[in-house]
């Protein structure tokens, strides 16, 4: 692939580029000059070269003569964005250009985070836009393995651009007629993938999986004690919920937020692969009852954050049915596997859930953010959350007001997260998403097999990964002769953070690490970026060895 020029080259290229925009050196205009410009007509951008150094935002639309200049400014910005997109996929470019917080705050090469009292010119703004990208992290780079959400899908990006251009809100059909119907279509399709019938299924897009999990707790509590909506917790018994030791911390956080309390979250033991043990769930429920609590909710995880484990959903559903408990499945990470014929069986039993969290911004590679809460019982979200603000949800509008879906949520303003997913689904079809998921899991298997054959690495889990998480230690030569025990553990604990620090400073690759309760720091590699190939996996291991062999 052609190497994309770095920022300084981009400056040069502008003068030579087809649209003929001429990049000029930044000049700081005095404030008095600035106010003089405000009284003058909008500068003309019809000539080939645009000098933005004396142009200000007030010259753009809605200035009566602002259309040409607005177009010129946005085209210039798009050139910067396109250069960044190309660079993101270029393996010879860095994943990040790391600077410490104090360095960024002090200002770098004219990049200043402080906000002025007087307007700055558009040239400065374009420089700021370029610098913002330059000092950020290319999460779409094929060698970014750090987070569950990664990749840069071009159709998804187009969807995000369109969404920002439309700049509307998801509370009423009145102002989002198309997006509201798209949300209905996409949620229905996701509910089908979960396995719910046409008579079942509701949902809402939320700002992330933690919020979806919080919604699920609100629904479960309301379902059992509808009076909570009006009278709060004061007359309710001590309620208990259950989640595994490998589940996401947002379950505890949600319990804290809604007034259940973290102490009333019973943490259920997992097996060595990180899956909830059903008999442990059963005994936790009995323990909670003995302690005088009312169990009401179980969170099962489909794709845990660190190990990528899938809890046994049918077994958990049986226990929930037996005790009359709400079953939530946190499939924020694992939900994407429902798109793959090869892997969807790992979520067998999910159709028995009362609610499901599924984040397409993770395994399906939709640009952040795109996260859905799906609810089996129709109408419950609305019942639980609606307050019917009269200025917004007037019942006497001329259209079917059941499409004013905003009152299902706990937010008022809600971002349009659906369009980019809808557009990507059109572009790929369900099968395209399935192949994308399959490729990510093939990369995980390739890494797992490579690690199994090497003496300088140790796998945390010996079984083939179920999801795309692969957890491992790098054992530097200095530790290879030391037998397992406290001394080795203490030293091994320091290896991953040291390698990660060097990695970030060099910017060549990014991977996360963490300890668990019984294991010292280990690397977690996750694959959700369709741009990643086997050569990137090889590169990752070579890089870890290069940076860590002297430790
Ligand atoms: N549950 C938020 C994602 C965390 C991660 O990317 O590792």
Automatic annotation (TrEMBL):
Gene3D superfamilies tied to this protein: 3.90.1150.170, Type I PLP-dependent aspartate aminotransferase-like (Major domain)
Origin superkingdom: Eukaryota
Residue stretches spanning the membrane: none
UniProt cross-references to InterPro entries, sorted A to Z: PyrdxlP-dep_de-COase, PyrdxlP-dep_Trfase, PyrdxlP-dep_Trfase_major, Pyridoxal-P_BS
Co-factor(s): pyridoxal 5'-phosphate
MF terms (GO), sorted A to Z: glutamate decarboxylase activity; pyridoxal phosphate binding
Single GO biological process annotation from the record: gamma-aminobutyric acid biosynthetic process
Keywords, in A-Z order: Decarboxylase, Lyase, Pyridoxal phosphate
GO cellular component, one term: cytoplasm
Segments of skewed composition (Polar residues): 35-48
Region named Disordered: 20-48
Basic and acidic residues compositional bias, start-end: 25-34
Modified residues (N6-(pyridoxal phosphate)lysine): 362
Subunit details: Homodimer.
UniProt family annotation: Belongs to the group II decarboxylase family.
Name of the featured protein: Glutamate decarboxylase 1
Organism name: Synaphobranchus kaupii
């Amino acid at each position: 692939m052609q190497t994309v020029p770095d920022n300084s080259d981009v400056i040069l290229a502008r003068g030579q580029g087809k649209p003929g925009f001429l990049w000029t050196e930044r000049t700081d205009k005095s404030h008095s000059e600035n106010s003089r410009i405000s009284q003058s007509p909008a500068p003309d951008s019809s000539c080939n070269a645009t000098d933005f150094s004396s142009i200000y935002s007030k010259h753009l639309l809605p200035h009566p003569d602002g259309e040409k200049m607005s177009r010129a400014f946005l085209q210039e910005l798009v050139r910067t964005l396109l250069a960044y997109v190309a660079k993101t996929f270029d393996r010879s470019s860095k994943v990040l250009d790391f600077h410490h917080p104090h360095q960024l705050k002090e200002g770098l090469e004219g990049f200043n985070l402080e906000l002025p009292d007087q307007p700055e010119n558009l040239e400065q703004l374009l420089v700021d836009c370029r610098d913002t990208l330059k000092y950020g992290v290319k999460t779409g780079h094929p060698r970014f393995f750090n987070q569950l959400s990664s990749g840069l899908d071009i159709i998804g990006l187009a969807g995000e651009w369109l969404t920002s251009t439309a700049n509307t809100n998801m509370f009423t059909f009145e102002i989002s007629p198309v997006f509201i119907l798209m949300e209905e279509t996409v949620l229905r399709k996701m509910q089908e993938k979960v396995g719910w019938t046409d008579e079942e299924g509701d949902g809402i897009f939320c700002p992330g999986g933690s919020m979806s999990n919080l919604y699920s707790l609100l629904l479960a509590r309301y379902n059992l004690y509808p009076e909570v909506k009006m009278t709060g917790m004061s007359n309710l018994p001590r309620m208990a919920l259950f989640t595994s030791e490998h589940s996401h911390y947002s379950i505890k956080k949600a319990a804290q937020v809604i007034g259940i309390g973290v102490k009333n979250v019973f943490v259920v033991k997992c097996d060595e692969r990180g899956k909830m043990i059903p008999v442990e769930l059963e005994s936790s429920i009995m323990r909670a009852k003995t302690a005088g609590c009312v169990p009401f909710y179980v969170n099962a995880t489909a794709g845990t954050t660190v190990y990528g484990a899938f809890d046994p959903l049918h077994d958990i559903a049986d226990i929930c049915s037996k005790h009359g408990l709400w079953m939530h499945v946190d499939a924020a990470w694992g939900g994407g596997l429902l798109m793959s014929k090869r892997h969807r069986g790992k979520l067998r039993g999910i159709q028995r859930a009362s609610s499901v969290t599924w984040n397409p911004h993770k395994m399906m590679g939709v640009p952040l953010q795109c996260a859905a809460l799906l609810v089996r019982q129709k109408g419950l979200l609305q019942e639980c959350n609606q307050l019917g603000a009269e200025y917004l949800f007037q019942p006497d509008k001329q259209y079917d007001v059941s499409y004013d879906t905003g009152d299902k949520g706990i937010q008022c303003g809600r971002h349009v997260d659906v369009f980019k997913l809808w557009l990507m689904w059109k572009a790929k079809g369900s099968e395209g998403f399935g192949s994308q998921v399959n490729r990510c899991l093939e990369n995980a298997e390739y890494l797992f097999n490579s690690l199994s054959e090497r003496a300088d690495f140790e796998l945390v889990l010996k079984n083939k990964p179920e999801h795309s998480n692969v957890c491992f230690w790098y054992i530097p030569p200095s530790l290879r002769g030391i037998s397992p025990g406290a001394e080795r553990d203490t030293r091994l604990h320091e290896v991953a953070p040291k390698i990660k620090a060097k990695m970030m400073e060099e910017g060549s690759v990014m991977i996360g690490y963490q300890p668990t309760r019984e294991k010292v720091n280990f690397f977690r590699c996750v694959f959700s970026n369709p741009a990643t190939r086997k050569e990137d996996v090889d590169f990752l291991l070579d890089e870890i060895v290069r940076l860590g062999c002297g430790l």
